[in-house]
Design brief:
14 strands; four-stranded antiparallel sheet; five-stranded antiparallel sheet
């Protein structure tokens, strides 16, 4: 059901609800297995016809992590902070064979910064970008890999040469660079028990603009020790794509549950 504060339903400060696997000690296991955006309401206090089923997440054919005994739902505030207390439910699992392979989502960004060499040499930048992209996609940072390279284009030019036989032209590769531009590539790998979330993750990324993802990444970089010295701007964002990561089917635990 919806968030309750002091015995009353209130969602004014809530942006979404996240569902996690958890163990008997109430410890969360891994990243969210489902994310439900808040139902839009104008008033601070909402009245639902039936609070218990205002939200529903259906999990079917999903791998259950080792040690998981229940599903925990935690509200997330409008600043992205996951609340420490929520609700939980138990589930019943069955042994199955799953043929759902992991999913890998790839994309890239073009950004501009004043000193690319210094920017790329700072290892904390990669960590900040992993956190930022994970936040944008609503996945765990350990699902994200990033790589960087300075933007350069290979073009072909004709070189005049007196020694070249008349009528022929020598073709040479000439590298031209865009000062201050960096290409950022990212991969988000969703394991078997999260593969069904790929459409949601793709939509979260498609909803981003160069401006919005730039602000998010700048915020994460700014949290690092040297982050405030970097002045960066995202110039372009490639539409992400997804593909299956093929591997052999193995016996796994899976569950169907309603939250």
């Amino acid at each position: 059901g919806p968030n309750i504060l002091n015995g009353k339903i209130t969602e004014r400060v809530i942006s979404e609800y996240r569902v996690y696997w958890s163990n008997a000690s109430a410890e969360l296991l891994g990243s969210p297995v489902a994310i439900m955006p808040r139902i839009g309401k104008d008033k601070t206090l909402e009245v639902f016809g039936c609070c218990s089923d205002a939200y529903e997440a259906v999990l079917s054919g999903v791998m259950i992590p080792t040690g998981a005994t229940r599903l925990t739902v935690l509200p997330v505030d409008i600043k992205g902070l996951v609340m420490p207390v929520g609700s939980f439910t138990s589930f019943q699992d069955v042994e199955t064979m799953t043929g759902v392979p992991p999913i890998r989502i790839t994309g890239s960004l073009t950004l501009q910064t004043e000193d690319p060499a210094v920017f790329l040499a700072d290892s904390s930048v990669a960590k900040a970008f992993r956190n930022g992209i994970a936040y944008a996609a609503h996945v765990s940072p350990d699902r994200v890999d990033v790589s960087f390279r300075e933007d350069a284009n290979l073009v072909q030019v004709h070189a005049d040469d007196d020694e070249v036989e008349p009528g022929l032209a020598e073709m040479k590769k000439h590298q031209t660079s865009n000062p201050g531009r960096i290409l950022v590539s990212y991969n988000i790998t969703l394991p078997v028990f999260e593969a069904l979330q790929s459409d949601r993750v793709m939509q979260e990324l498609r909803n981003q603009t160069p401006s919005s993802i730039g602000s998010l990444l700048a915020r994460e970089v700014g949290k690092e020790p040297n982050g405030t010295k970097y002045n960066m701007k995202v110039l372009a964002m490639e539409t992400p794509t997804a593909k299956l990561v093929r591997n052999r089917s193995t016996p796994t635990k899976s569950a169907a549950a309603h939250i």
